């Protein structure tokens, strides 16, 4: 499973980082920017967190679960805001709160990792 999660973490970090910049540009040049600005902020905030989890994957015991929760949570949250901006509906009912709870749970998983001790880094 970690053979999938670890590279996916780096991939999602890159997607969120690039999307965050593109969304910031779109928010700057488009009428009502509330949704795009918030999607950009969440993407740009969580891309470096995912990159850090990728880098510390072998040391932080909760990194895989934290990465999944942060990555999916951010994708759902930002995706819902993007769909709301360009369409008249949401991604699915309660998508933004679901994504937000995923992000909160991901950060909680990072904090919980402090109580599990660090693994020895693989050489």
UniProtKB/TrEMBL annotation:
Keyword Transmembrane helix among record annotations: yes
Signal peptide positions on this chain: 1-24
Transmembrane segments: 34-56, 63-83, 95-118
Pfam family, one: DUF423
Assigned keywords, A-Z: Membrane, Signal, Transmembrane, Transmembrane helix
Protein name, UniProt field: Uncharacterized membrane protein YgdD (TMEM256/DUF423 family)
């Amino acid at each position: 499973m970690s053979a999938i999660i670890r590279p996916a973490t780096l991939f999602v970090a890159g997607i969120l980082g690039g999307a965050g910049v593109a969304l910031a540009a779109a928010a700057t040049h488009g009428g009502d920017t509330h949704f795009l600005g918030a999607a950009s902020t969440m993407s740009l905030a969580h891309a470096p967190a995912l990159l850090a989890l990728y880098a510390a994957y072998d040391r932080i015991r909760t990194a895989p679960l934290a990465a999944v929760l942060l990555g999916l949570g951010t994708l759902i949250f930002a995706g819902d805001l993007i769909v709301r901006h360009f369409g008249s509906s949401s991604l699915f009912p309660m998508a933004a709160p679901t994504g937000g709870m995923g992000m909160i749970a991901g950060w909680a998983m990072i904090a919980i990792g402090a109580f599990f001790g660090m693994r020895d880094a693989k050489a």
